[in-house]
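lol forgot to send this yesterday, sorry. struct tokens for the thing we talked abt
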């Protein structure tokens, strides 16, 4: 009996992971946060699958996590050979974490502790494998390029700090209680399911607004941030591979190449016939279309973080060697897929 539990199942990664596991004949349990608005659009197409079971909950509520684990144990009993728990739930917006630092710490940091404690006290810890979603933002002001599993951490946001706690507490429980608990240090991964406030979707949706006349400009922050961008569907496959490993171990997942926000803008707009060029400096820089002279891209300091992370580049050679994981969708194909989805011809 293959059984999994996904926190954050309605998010980008959660929806791709649910698809992957259902295709592998898992029974997939998902925890979703109660909201005044429906927030399940990413998994609506999975609702008819009888192996999908959803429960309301929140990582700030340890009783809720215990209740769900107890229900799973009661439902499957001795037929439960293994339960894979994927903790993907988080307050995941770096810029917003500066405005909500305490909430970010509770969800992204202490929320992980709640799950680990629930596993430890469940009575069937030996049947559970736990995956913790960590992030390249833990490297922050990077100490070396590229970054791998041995690179020192230096987070530059409340989000990065909270995720660093989740990384260390997962490692601590693995070593203290012989728990199968691992962290994936994932570099940026995008898709058409990415939230609209993240810069990649902001660019592709903004392009559509300009073409359709809903807006005459796109306003962004730091154009020169360098990110290692992959596709979310590749990265959830890596999560699953980590829990199929013989021994619990942390891995970096990355494409091993990086691109700037500026390049993402240029490639996205080029796919719809714009030739973006730049003039001006710093906050006064403007991107214009060479073909028409229209000024389209503007910069605002309100989209800059209080402390910037300028350069993230991952080295996933260990995951390739030990898990057989490699990304299949790289930058150009990712940009094209997102533009085709958000700005159809």
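and heres what i got for the seq, position by position
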């Amino acid at each position: 009996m293959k059984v999994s539990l996904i926190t954050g199942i309605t998010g980008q990664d959660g929806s791709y992971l649910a698809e992957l596991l259902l295709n592998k004949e898992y029974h997939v349990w998902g925890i979703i946060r109660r909201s005044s608005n429906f927030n399940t659009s990413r998994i609506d197409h999975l609702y008819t699958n009888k192996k999908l079971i959803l429960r309301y909950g929140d990582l700030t509520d340890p009783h809720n996590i215990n209740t769900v684990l107890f229900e799973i144990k009661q439902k499957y009993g001795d037929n439960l050979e293994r339960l894979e728990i994927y903790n993907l739930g988080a307050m995941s917006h770096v810029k917003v974490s500066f405005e909500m630092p305490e909430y970010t710490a509770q969800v992204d940091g202490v929320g992980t502790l709640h799950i680990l404690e629930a596993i430890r006290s469940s009575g069937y810890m030996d049947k559970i494998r736990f995956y913790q979603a960590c992030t390249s933002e833990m490297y922050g002001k990077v100490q070396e390029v590229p970054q791998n599993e041995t690179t020192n951490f230096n987070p530059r946001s409340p989000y990065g700090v909270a995720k660093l706690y989740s990384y260390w507490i997962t490692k601590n429980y693995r070593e203290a209680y012989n728990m199968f608990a691992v962290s994936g240090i994932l570099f940026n991964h995008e898709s058409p399911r990415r939230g609209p406030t993240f810069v990649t979707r902001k660019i592709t949706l903004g392009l559509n607004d300009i073409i359709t006349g809903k807006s005459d400009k796109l306003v962004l922050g730091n154009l020169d941030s360098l990110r290692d961008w992959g596709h979310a569907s590749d990265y959830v496959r890596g999560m699953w591979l980590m829990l199929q490993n013989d021994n619990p171990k942390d891995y970096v997942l990355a494409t091993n190449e990086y691109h700037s926000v500026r390049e993402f803008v240029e490639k996205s707009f080029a796919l719809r016939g714009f030739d973006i060029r730049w003039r001006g400096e710093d906050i006064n820089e403007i991107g214009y279309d060479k073909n028409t002279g229209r000024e389209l891209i503007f910069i605002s300091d309100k989209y800059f973080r209080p402390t910037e992370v300028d350069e993230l580049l991952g080295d996933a050679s260990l995951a390739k060697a030990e898990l057989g994981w490699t990304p299949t969708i790289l930058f150009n194909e990712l940009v094209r897929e997102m533009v085709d989805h958000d700005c159809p011809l």
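The two ends are 45 Å apart (CA to CA). anyway ping me if u want another try
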